[in-house]
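hey all, quick one before standup. I had two proteins in the batch that finished overnight and I want to keep them in one place so we stop losing track of which output belongs to which input. First protein below, input sequence then structure tokens straight from the run.
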Amino acid sequence: MPLSDPAPRALSHTRILELKAYERQDGLWDIEGHITDVKEDDYSMLDSERTADQPVHDMWLRLTIDTDLVVRAAEAQMDVGAHGPCPLAAPNYSRLQGLKMGPGWNRAVRERLGGVVGCTHLNEMLAQMATTAMQSLFEVVENMDPNNTGRLSLSPGLRNSCYAYALNSPYVRDYFPDDYQAD
């Protein structure tokens, strides 16, 4: 369903965020993110000039994770940063190694890569990369009954995390009855 008709307008900027997950043959997973920003018109930066066909940002980030959602390796690459020094932040993304995706992920990212240590745009992408990882590994690691009885159990990370996973929602009632809590 498209959004309602907007007022007349002209396109100014396009950000494309592409996230992909790959299951590796060694049992690990690669979560890759690619972000590009492009202006519709020529654009003047303080330290460079960009034509409309040149990106302001063209950045990559790969997280290699295990099935416990722990980062085993991280690699960043900036083909184009907004300013000359931007690519110098890329090696700092190895600081993500050892972090576990889940509650507290965004805070831990800020602690290791916030401020002058990292890149705002790559840091923003990391939240979406965690979601991509969880979506990709959902059937591998989530909602499985540890006693192997075949009953689904709502993982703690999903409980009350959104409208559908509210413990009093019809969805939880119908698909996770052991976790359902009526009002």
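OK second protein, same deal, sequence then tokens:
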Amino acid sequence: MFNTYTRLTLFFLCFSVLLSAQDARYSQFYANPLQLNPAMNGVFDGSFRFTANYKQQYSSLLKSNAYTSYATGIEFRKNVNRGDFAAFSVSLQRDQAGMSKFTRTRGHIGGSFMKQLDGSRYRNNNKYLIVGAQVGLGQHSFDWSGLWFSRQFDNSNPSLPFINMDADPGESLGEQNSNTYLDFNAGLLWYALFDDNMSIYFGGSINHLTTPNVAFMESAIEKLDSRYVVHAGGEIPFTEQLSILPAIVGMIQGPSMSSTVGANFRYSNGERNELAIRAGLWGHLSNQLESQIGFEAVIVTAILELETLNVGFSYDITTSKLTEANNARGGMEVSLIYTQPANRKQQMRCPNF
């Protein structure tokens, strides 16, 4: 039992260190466009779009100290030329992890330009190239009051040892907040739409272009590694109502690598006021502490599409060695997307993601 708790403690300590250099990963990456790629800004059928995402991990082990991530964003798009568009966005991202309440908060404003390469925005055969960028501010913080150190372990009564949180920890804890840093992201996206339910897309982005310093100590330097993202996908129809949406995303940030691949099946009623449901299966791979690539989780997804609203739910089923501790109970994620319909001048044909 002691060895089990020791391994768990070391695992989460190492994971907390990695968090300072690795951005949050969402299982429903296709429902979190502004955190995936700045060039996804404005790529939707409507005049504006609101997105919200929530993810929780390891609650079966950490209870109220589970790792949580929140993201939200809003985008507006305007026609600037025949078939071309420009978009503006505002987005927020916040993560919190473990007993120390290690928190990362970032806010960005973004812009993108969508150049039509072929077709008409009123027809199905469209091809677009989009370039996007974001600039914003970020800060990291700790709550040291939630931690205890070896000097606070009181063993004066061997039969009833306890942690004395009022005792001097004997540590120089430093600042609880990092300096506010400036953050830049940039990305590209290309897509081709062949029919209402037939499309293909490729994209890539670089986040934290300036590798800002996020150290807590004034004289220390701890760079936030740039995050490189590539993603691709599309939609393949079986019938007018049934199609499959395969996709893949790969991310590299410093020593960390992450990849998610899979597909959602989509069934639509095919009517003017469209109602659709999706269900899918995905796999997540990442490098382990020993630097080898391992299969981390299987992700089950379900999405309800209404005329203006998408609501998605997914659950990560752990498949790594961590199953010995959490019995495969990984984490849940919820997404919400609201899209305001556009008038004829603002319409833009986009793929289903």
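Flagging for whoever picks this up: The CA atoms of residues 16 and 175 lie 17 Å apart. The first helix runs from residue 2 to 19.
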